Amino acid sequence: MKKKIIVAITGATGSVYGTRLLEILQTIEEVESHLILSDAGALTARYELGLDKKTIAALADVTHSPKDIGATLSSGSFITHGMIIAPCSMKTLGSIANGIADNLVSRAADVVLKERRKLVLLARETPLNLIHLRNMTTLSEMGAIIAPPVPAFYTQPESIDDIVNHTIGRVLDTLDIDHVDYSRRWQGLAKP
User: Fold this and answer.
1) How do residues 16-37 score in pLDDT, each as one tens digit?
2) Is the pTM of this model over 0.90?
3) What is the rounded CA–CA span in Å between residue 138 and residue 77?
4) In the chain, which residues have pLDDT < 50?
5) Structural domains in the chain plus CATH codes
6) CB of 112 within 8 A of CB of 79?
7) Cα gap 74→111, rounded to integer Å
8) N or C: which end of the chain has fewer CB within 10 A?
9) C-alpha 131 chain-centroid distance
């Protein structure tokens, strides 16, 4: 049986993280991707990447409307391996932290948390205010993984793609998804 992974793309900057994640998941046979693309996420992806909803939807195995609160993903009886929100806006993060399940993104995240499955949030905002930090703390205490897409320079990236791929590789590691190593792993300092 394939591992069902929910991928949500919200309106924060960094839509490349969600689209790259979907591209990589397409190459992993044991994964079935379920996409929720928010309206704001679609706007941001069009601006940042020049991609429309149809093009992004084609990257996923299954696509769900963010307005479909009755979708399979809104029930704990629909077994998933976990959920990744990439990028995750502070609005979405705050909704999840406070139990406001008013769309499929926040409802699916709520279900993942209540079923004790893995929820990974690529939180995108800087600088962070106290509300952001408290919401992140609340979610972390509930078991969510807060994984801001912060570049690792020990990998000596040569392009934005290198930076994005490293982040996505780390996210897949958190879900125990075997993948081609899309990033250089730390090997320790070279011995003199």
Assistant:
1) 999 999 999 999 999 999 999 9
2) yes
3) 25
4) none
5) 3-174 (3.40.50.1950)
6) no
7) 7
8) C
9) 21
